[in-house]
Amino acid sequence: MTPSARRRTSFVTTLVSPFLALAAGAVVLALPLAPPAWADATGASRPSATMVVNAEVMVLHATQSPGGGSIDPAIGNMPQLRTPPMSAFNTYRLLDKRSLALTVGTGATYTMANGRVLQVTFVERTPDHGFHVRAAINQPGGKAYLKLLELTAKPNDPFFVAGQLYQGGTLILAITLRP
Amino acid sequence: MSLSQNELIYLMAYADGQVDDDELPEVLALLDRSEEARQIVAQQAALSDWVRTSSDARAASGGADEIAGRVHTAIEKLGGGQVIHLERERAMVALKRQRVKEFGALFAVAAAAATFWLMPQSKPQPVAVAPPPAHSHTTRPSASTPSSSAVASVASGSQGDTSPATASASEAEGAGVDVQTVESPAHPFSIFYVPAATGLNAHSSSVVVWIGE
Known about the structure:
Chain A is of the alpha+beta class. In chain A, 16% of the residues lie in helices and 42% in strands. Chain B is of the alpha+beta class. Chain B has three domains: 5-76, no CATH class; 84-119; 127-140 and 147-211, no CATH class. In chain B, helix 1 crosses helix 3 (35-61) and helix 2 crosses helix 3. Chain B is elongated, with a radius of gyration of 48 Å.
């Protein structure tokens, strides 16, 4: 290599190297920001064996009673029962309370009093520290009552699945995800 | 003439001062031992001197030495000009081309990586159903029809839908619960977005998915 060619190479290397480093750094930093497409069609990331969330399932029996009605003290503090649409009922009784331990990518089932089976699957942890879950309610020998409910919920914020008729009232599932 | 053609070439090169260092001892040895070689070198040197002198004289008479000055004068009259170092300019052009190539390659790599990471796999997605006006659809028995003044919005799917319905939770931005998909082909359903409340019955925003039998 001639001296002038060597000077040119050195000149080019000196100016280009920082740009190369910056661009390569940007690529490396950008990759972890998004979930890989190959993980899951819904954007779920690869399962982490250590991630566990507890799905607390409360099975409530809602009825409309003469008078003021009552809320079972075993239910605890659940103000949503006093607001629409659940305020349509004035009496709530706790039938069962279960805690389903879920790991990322796996589901757990719970058989309700009416024979239907609730299945809850923990899909992933969301970037805002919530939980991405799927739920389904199947019934033996019949079409799915709830084929799919997919949602994200923040820790300790309950969501409700209601409407199943049961013993003159309605079943209401209050599901709360707790880390 | 006893000198070879090769020796003559070396001698002429020596007269012109173009003999390399490694060849010089051989030429000097030849000059040492050959009178003919010395004469040739002397003639060649004289000839070279005459050519040089003659050329200089012609250049001077033709004003060749003033060409550069005249060009500079003309440039000054036009407002001056910038001195460009061709070697440096070529290096800069080469550098720019190299940068374009390298950034192009990097951009392509980044785009490919982003596509790989960000683009979701194609999958049949449920048909999106825009939430209808609030409280437009209830499926519960009349006894349980809620007083819905506190319900933020309702999305619904009707029984017999062949395609699963998806309720957008756009109204529930920032909510504690955000519903993305509800599929209940055999049962009508409604989704109630319950806003957060403060005061005595304080609670975070929530969602009630009501599925009819």
